[in-house]
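Service request form, structural biology core

Requester: graduate student, group of Dr. S.
Request type: structure prediction, single chain
Budget code: on file
Notes: please return the result as structure tokens.

Sequence provided:
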Amino acid sequence: MGQTPEVSTPLPVYIVGLESQDLESSLAETKFRRSIESLSHVYPDIGEARATVRAFSKGKERKHFEVHVLIRMPKHQVEFREEGWSIEEVFENIGSKIKRLMTKPRDNPSRRRLPARAERAVARF
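Core staff response, request fulfilled:
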């Protein structure tokens, strides 16, 4: 019996507010798409990944960028905020945050709640 090839559907990755003519912006977009694709190998149930870019002008030559990333999955969603003077560096930092998300245990909570002192006292008796 032959194996059927898997049909990969493209992930819904959106980048809002990014200038498409700039070389640095296109590099940032490819970095974001690659990091989301690598995340989809660990979390195959990604519903949507969206990055919203806001640019603030400081004079005529410098821009300050603020990027808000939202990754939606069926059970939870992940948000990142990053800002900087270079859009490529901002998306590089977001990519490293996404890599850290891939190494985090999926089912274990990141913070464990310790019982209060009164609850421990009641449990002893």
